Amino acid sequence: MAGGQHAKATAGRDGQGQIRERSSLLPSNRKLRHLQGLSLRNLELRKTASHPRGRTIDDESLPSTLKTPEKALAQKEKAKLEHSHSSVDLKQKAKDVPERTVADKRGAAEERLSVSRLKRADTLNWTNASSRLRQEKLEQATRGKMADVWYSLHLGTTVDPIYISEVIRETLNPSFRFFDMNTYGAFVTRREEITIRFWAKTNATDSDVLLIDLNVNLRSLYFIGKTVPENLALESFSLPLPRNAVLFHLSDGIYTSFTDLPNDEQGGSPKASRKASQQVQSTSSFDALMRLSNIDNCIQDAISTRDRLMTQIDNILHQQEEKRDAVNAASQAQESLASTTRSLGACRKQVQSVENHRSKLQASLSSRRAAILSGQDTQQKSQGNLAKGRVELSSREKARQGIKSDLSGQIRRIGEDLSSIYPIAPVSDGSLSFSIRNSVLPVAGSQPHQDPIESATALGHAAHTTHLLSHYLSTPVPYPISPNGSTSTIYDPISTSLPSEAARTFPLYQKGAVAYRFDYGVFLLNSNIELIMSRQGARLIDLRYTLGNLKYILTVITEGKGEIPGRKRGQIKGLNGSLKGSSRDSSIGSRHLEKKAVEGENSDAKELRRALEDSRIH
After folding, report:
1. 3-state secondary structure string, 94-112?
2. How far apart are CA 178 and CA 36, in angstroms?
3. Is 426:555 a contact under the CB 8 Å cutoff?
4. Do 506 and 595 fall into the same domain?
5. Does residue 196 sit in the same domain as residue 305?
6. Distant-in-sequence, close-in-space partners of 408: CB < 8 Å, separation ≥ 6
7. Which residues are 245's β-sheet partners?
8. In terms of domains, do 306 and 254 share one?
9. Are residues 609 and 479 in the same domain?
C-alpha cells in the first residue's frame, strides 16, 4: 500500500444502530495517487426560491407562522398576493384562528403546538390521467434538469487542466470513467489538494457553463463506504447527500466533501437532530431585536452607498472613455509605427539583396552574350571548313574505295601465291586427308602409326602457311609460331601454371618429343587456324582438319571478280581487310569439304579432342 501507514478497518454504529464501514487509509496518507475517479449526484443547474422545506409561498397565512410588525407592514403594502399552487386556499381556513401579536410571544409556542395543523390537498391528481399525459408531464419535469456534464482536474489555480473527462449526455447522476494518476509522475501523485471544475450544458444554453468550482484537500473528505449504488438519491442514504454532491472514488472506498457533518462520537442520526430542533426554545430579548434592526439598517445603508459609489465610478469611467480610447489609440499607433519601421528595414535588406543578385545576373548575361557572339563566329568558320571537309571527304572516300579494291586484289594475289608455294590437295584414299607439297597430314588421331618425318614436314609447311596468313591478313594469333621446317614449335603464353618458357613451348614433330606435348602443339596450331577463319567469316567444320581448314581459308581469300593484279614494288607493311559470306558460299570445293568433314567425325575423334582439352587445362 503506497502512502505509509494505514488505519485498521474498523466498524462503528450510526444513530439508527446500523453498522457503518470505516476507511482503511489515514487522512494524512491520502494522496492523489489514491484517487481513481469522480461521480456527481443530485444534479441541480439553477437555484430554487429560498423558502423553508415543506412550505409553499402562501404559508405566511397559517396561524402557526410567526407574526412580526415588519411582515404585517409588508403584507399590507403588497397590492396583490401571489397565486398559490395548492388546490386548497389555506388562508380561508385560517380566518377563525385568532391572530397572535408580539406581546403574546411567551405562550405562542405552546399555542402553535395545540392548534390543529392544516393539511394540503394533492396538487397534481394523476390517478385518472392517461399514460400519454403522464409521459408528457414526466418529460416536461425532467427536461430542464437533464444536462451534458463533464469535468476537468487542475493543480491549484492553474488554467490548463491535467485531466479532462468524457461527456455524459443527458444525465442527473453522472458516473465518469476511472483514471490512473500514477502516469503523471511524483510531482502530481504526492499532492493532497486538487481543484475540480464541473461543466454542464443544457438545451437552453449555447455553451458549457461552470457548475462547480471545488478546491478539495483529500484529508478533509468524509468516508461513505466501500460501494455506493449508481442511482444514489437523497433518501437512499442514512445521511442524505446535498445538491451537486461530488463523490470521490479512492482506492479504499468512496468519499464525499461534506462540510457540516456531525462527528462520529456524537452518534446522532438526522432524524434525532430534526426532533431536537423542534423543541421549544427561548426567544431573543427586545434589545437584541433592536440591535439586529439597527444592524439591518446599517447594512441597507451600506448597500445603498455601495450602489451609489458604483454608479459614480461608472459615470467617471464613461466620461474618461474617450481619453482611454485616445491613449490606447496612441499606444497602438506607436506599436504599429515600430512594426512598420522593422518591416521597412527588412524590405530594404531584401531589395538590396535582390539588386545585388540582379547585377550578378546582368554580368552573367553579358558574358554569355559575348560567348554566344564568339560561338557564332566560330560556327560560321566551322561551316566553311565543313563545306571544304565534305568535298575532301568525298575525294578520300573514293580513294578509300580504290585502296580497298587494290587491297582485296593483293590479298587474292597473296592467296594464289601461297596456294602455289604450298599446294594443298586431297588424298584419294577417301579419309578426308590432305597433303601439302606432297606431304600427307592425316586427321589428328585417325592414323596412329603414320610416318613421323612426313607428318613433321607437313606440320612445318602448315605452321609456316598459318604464320604468313596471320601477318598478311593482320590477324594476330594467341599462340606464336616458330616456323623451322620439320622442327617447328608453338608457344603457349596463356598457361601460366607451367614453370618455365621451355615448358610452354610445344613441338610440332613426333620424333624425340613426348606424345601428349606433340598432340597439344597440334591443338594450339589448329586453334590459331580457327581464329583466322573466324576473322575471315569462314565456318569451322572440325578443329582436327588442319590442312582442310587451311585449304578452306585460301579458297575464301582467292575468290573474287576480275583479274588478279600483279605485284607492286615497295614494302607492304600489312594487308588489312577481309572478304565475307557470299564468295565463301559460291565455292563448290568448300561445300564438298564441309560435307566430307561432317561425315568423317566419329567417336574416336571426340575422345581425342576431349583428351587434348584436358591436357591443355593441366
Report:
1. CCCCCCCCHHHCCCHHHHH
2. 5
3. no
4. yes
5. no
6. 560, 577, 579
7. 41
8. no
9. yes
Q: How many domains does the chain have?
A: 3
In a domain, 1, yes or no: no
Residue type, 548: G
Q: Give the sign of the dihedral formed by CA 156, CA 158, CA 159, CA 162.
A: negative
Report pLDDT for 466: 93
Q: What is the pLDDT of residue 604?
A: 37
More confident residue, 61 or 606: 61
8 Å CB contact between 213 and 197: yes
Average pLDDT for residues 464-493, to the nearest whole number?
92
Residue type, 92: Q
More confident position, 164 or 133: 164
595, part of any domain: yes
| CA dihedral over 316, 321, 324, 326, signed as positive or negative | negative
User: pLDDT tens digit string along 357-396?
Assistant: 999 999 999 999 999 999 999 999 999 899 889 999 999 9
Q: Are residues 602 and 480 in the same domain?
A: yes
Inter-axis angle of helices 515-535 and 546-558, nearest 10: 20
Q: Is 498 helix (H, G, I), strand (E, B) or coil?
A: coil
Q: Given the DSSP bridges, would you call strands 147-154 and 168-171 parallel, antiparallel or unpaired? A: antiparallel
Count of beta carbons in the 10 Å neighbourhood of residue 201: 18
Print the domain residue range for 518: 422-617
Q: Are residues 176 and 291 in the same domain?
A: no
Residue 49 scores a pLDDT above 60: no
What contacts 241, CB < 8 A, 6 or more positions away? Answer: 41, 42, 232, 233, 234, 256
* Shared-domain flag, residues 303 and 432: no
Top-ranked range on mean pLDDT: pick from 77-86, 239-248, 445-454, 459-468? 459-468
Separation between Cα atoms, residue 364 and residue 208, nearest integer Å? 66
314-325 confidence digits (pLDDT tens): 999 888 888 888
Residue with cell 572516300: 397
